[in-house]
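Homework help board

Subject: predicted structure for assignment chain

Our instructor gave us this sequence and asked us to write out the predicted structure in token form, then describe one feature. I got the tokens but I'm not sure how to describe them. Can anyone check?
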Amino acid sequence: MTLQDFSKLNKHEIEFIERCAHLKHAAKQSNDMTVFEYIKELERNLEFLLCKLSSETFWELFPKILGIDAKLTLLENFLYSDLTTSINSTSLITLVEQDYKTINQENYDYTVNDTVPASFIFCVD
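My token output:
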């Protein structure tokens, strides 16, 4: 991406690109190419979903977009902690794939069994 292309992006697009860049850097620093590739896959999946997004597809795709964000959040929690030294790449990705649907509940202090408000933030797929 050129500097000119970057200037056309809005604040949220730039934040997403920077977020993924930081995560990929952390994965590279750990010599964890499996997690690095997983992050790249999440980026590609988001780009694909955004290309398909329209008023007709919004309700189908929005939970998937939130799911990608939740996966990135979990990766951030793991990669920026000491936990990555005690867990291998495959186990880390498995944990992310198992837990991403409930991370927003946990961030708002709900347990998995609690009934959560009918907010978009909990519509993760």
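Reply (TA_rk): Your tokens look well-formed. For the description, you could write something like this. Residues 10-122 form one domain. That's the kind of observation they're looking for.
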